[in-house]
Write a structure and sequence with these properties.
WH-like_DNA-bd_sf, 314 residues, Arc Repressor Mutant, subunit A, alpha/beta, eight-stranded mixed beta sheet, LysR_HTH_N, D-Maltodextrin-Binding Protein, domain 2, two-stranded antiparallel ribbon, 10 strands, 3 domains
Length: 314
């Protein structure tokens, strides 16, 4: 049994396709298949059920693969020990970030982070929360930036800051003259929200259901995957939407009147850096955390956890 064979094993489990796994391992498919066959013969068990499409591990194979991931992670720590002795950080850092954070958070820190660590190659993917967690579990990402808590035992959460929700209201709406908004004033019939799959949608509905109407009619059926689209709809049509605080920090002056904070205590969302429990690249990820926190506006960075809106599925 070799580490290379274990890497092939994990790759097939990750991609559920021998040709794709071979491509990501930079070997030919016959080479990968032959090595896995040798491993199965040595173990005396069948790890994969090749009769199924896509290929699936057997029940015993699942346990073997889980242990293989542990062994590979531990072996990579040797390389990390050597890397940690170097003064300059280097290597690749794969980051997954949710769409309601990416356009507002990434510009705050990414340039300064790269300037401080020129030997680091950063790869960023915008993904939904479930996709980030899945990729962390399959070692396809090193770190995620998303909203917590997740209640996922495989994931370690490191809270970074607490971001307030604000209402973005059309000037002709009945609430447009109020400087502050209460949750029980919100009516779902007037609300534009993101489509299914976004944790932000779940949080918005959670806020509204604390006192607002539970009717799911009206604009609730609109399909949008972009907060910027929701802003434009509110500006040009009618109604209101809820937005994260970072998304309105640099809003043009003429549109600032559309932004209405909530009454205290404001509903907040907990933005965290998340990693797999057995994560590597600790110094690199710690440097990322420090840079993000340093670049967050002081008013947000210094805010304490109060009324965090948990992600719920409706």
């Amino acid at each position: 049994m070799t580490l290379v064979q274990l890497e092939y094993l994990v790759a097939v489990d990750t991609y559920r396709h021998f040709a794709t796994a071979a491509e990501h391992c930079f070997v030919t498919q016959p080479t990968l298949s032959m090595q896995l066959q040798k491993l199965e013969e040595e173990l005396g068990v069948q790890v994969f059920d090749r009769s199924r499409v896509p290929v699936r591990p057997t029940e015993l194979g699942k346990e073997i693969i889980a242990q293989a991931r542990v062994v590979l992670a531990e072996s990579k720590k040797i390389q990390e020990l050597i890397q940690n002795q170097k003064q300059e950080l280097s290597g690749e850092l794969r980051i997954g970030v949710i769409p309601t954070l990416a356009p507002y958070l990434m510009p705050l820190f990414i340039t300064s982070f790269l300037e401080k660590h020129p030997q680091v190659r950063v790869v960023v993917q915008e993904l939904l929360t479930d996709e980030i967690v899945e990729k962390l579990n399959h070692e396809l990402l090193d770190v995620g930036l998303l909203v917590t808590p997740l209640a996922n035992k495989s994931i370690k959460e490191v809270p970074l800051f607490y971001e307030a929700f604000v209402a973005y209201i059309n000037p002709k709406h009945a609430l447009a003259q109020q400087p502050f908004i209460a949750a029980n004033q919100l009516d779902l019939d007037d609300l534009w929200v993101l489509n299914e799959g976004h944790c932000f949608r779940s949080q918005v509905l959670n806020i509204c259901n604390r006192g607002g109407s539970s009717d799911s009619g009206g604009h609730l059926d609109y399909r949008s995957g972009s907060l910027e689209t929701l802003k434009r709809i509110v500006e040009t049509q009618h109604g209101l939407t809820l937005l994260p605080e970072l998304s309105v920090l640099e809003i043009p002056e003429e549109k600032q009147k559309l932004v209405h904070p909530f009454e205290e205590p404001q509903p907040l969302r907990e933005v965290s850096l998340v990693v797999h429990r057995s994560f590597l690249k600790k110094k690199l990820i710690e440097a990322l955390k420090e840079e993000i926190v340093a670049c967050i506006p002081a008013a947000i960075r210094e805010r304490k956890r109060e009324k965090v809106v948990e992600v719920k599925t409706f």
